[in-house]
Amino acid sequence: xxxxxxxxxxxxLVAEEHALFxxxxxxxxxxxxxxxxxxxxxxxxxxxLRQRRARExxxxxxxxxxxxxAETVEKYLQ
Length: 78
What we know:
Distance between the termini: 29 Å
Helix content: 55-70%
Oligomer: single chain
Radius of gyration: 15 Å
Low-confidence stretches: none
Number of domains: 1
Mean pLDDT: 93
Shape: elongated
Number of strands: 0
Structural class: mainly alpha
């Protein structure tokens, strides 16, 4: 996946997230679970994009990056 594809996927998820947020307090339990899944996937994609940019900065191949697991990405703040 290249940077443009990453940005497109991020934008798509953000649009879905905003559509769910626009419902306000009227979300179903399934929609709330979907919001949680979107947040995790966005964290993973942003992490992948940062990895790619770091590799480019240090003249390494950005294609050598891999999406990290949700568990890894979500524990960064802990």
